[in-house]
């Protein structure tokens, strides 16, 4: 078994450590971290491996890692907190606070449509650079002027990157702050997580890589999860697919998602840098009612859409910004009605479960082959639930 893993693990959650160590022993990881809270008690805080494959720099306790679309859960929480404070109506028209958005038949769109991937703007209709994407107002203006691909509310399709400048515009217009600034000032200030990171944090962050990339479907076609991940991977690789168009524009530019331009900008769809401990702390606080009221969270968890996803090909399910268990958000059977959170491209996951009192985050820097969901994350989540007894 690999000795690269460091950190703390409560004996009752030894199964999580065993799975994590096995991933390293099997060559599935380069560097990674996983953290679990049971209530307010941190029962798992593990890390290991290499943070930078070019230099061999080791992963340490304070190494932040890019979480891709795990960011969306933070953006959703920020938007929902403003709704809870009465700044807007979730099921009210977007045009009440964003008049320009009503162009091209989008006047019937609601904030709930923005938050649940129903608004019909899953991709930009022209190429957008990383430098342009650093200006949230400019990207929101592009989307407001764009024709939807379906009538808002009539279908859902994962708004992989556009989501951040749609749901994020709720925060920018109604608070006067970016999502990153709002979250840091309102509820993540004490956590090691940033959407729009300072240079010192970027300097010690893990470097994302596809080097030695492992398939998320490594267990082969015998598992249903493996088959789903293969279908997602095939769609992602097809340049003509809606998924490819949605996930690759804006392009992060030189260095991919290690590009400091992207990391400083803090894209509200895919921009979070965090330690696993910090990100699990965000879910801990959500589950405990310290960010949103319990009734607000329960309403946000309610499935607004479920079924075939126009972008992701397979079935997906969303509440208000949060993923719910589906083919794109794998959780153990006992969590299928109670878990919420979000995955990130390449394998990362954040999860909360109010009924189980569980919060979990997993952040790897060796990317899997799929756009959403990963069997490494599933195995760790499965071990965490099994440890609850």
TrEMBL record:
Pfam families: Beta-lactamase. Residues 17-383 form the Beta-lactamase-related domain. It comes from the Bacteria. InterPro entries: Beta-lactam-related (IPR001466), Beta-lactam/transpept-like (IPR012338), Beta-lactamase/esterase (IPR052907). PANTHER family: BETA-LACTAMASE-RELATED, BETA-LACTAMASE-RELATED DOMAIN-CONTAINING PROTEIN. This is Beta-lactamase family protein.
